[in-house]
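Quick one, probably user error.
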């Protein structure tokens, strides 16, 4: 059994984002993402569904052309195949992301 603390060793990178897999079980992957304030926006189109929760900080996402301004506690469901981009985040924005992959 693996355990830990979401807030341990959560220093943000100087730029970009840091991704850490907390759990990978069957078709579920749970990730912790830590954002810096220096993000170069990049569009993601994923093959799996994703649910994200902004635990700390603020961020702006564009999902399928719609802008979402998020604060701590806000969450979004990102269906597979839907383009999304992190346009910006506060230094140390902390995310929890759940990726649901197809069985197989």
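Nope, works fine. Designed sequence:
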């Amino acid at each position: 059994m693996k355990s830990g603390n979401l807030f341990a060793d959560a220093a943000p990178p100087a730029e970009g984002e840091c991704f850490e897999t907390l759990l990978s079980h069957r078709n579920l992957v749970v990730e912790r993402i830590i954002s810096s304030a220096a993000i170069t926006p990049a569009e993601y189109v994923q093959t799996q569904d994703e649910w994200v929760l902004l635990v700390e900080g603020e961020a702006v996402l564009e999902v399928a052309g719609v802008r979402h301004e998020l604060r701590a506690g806000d969450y979004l469901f990102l269906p597979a195949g839907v383009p999304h981009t992190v346009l910006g985040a506060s230094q140390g924005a902390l995310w929890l992301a759940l990726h649901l992959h197809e069985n197989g």
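The two ends are 24 Å apart (CA to CA).
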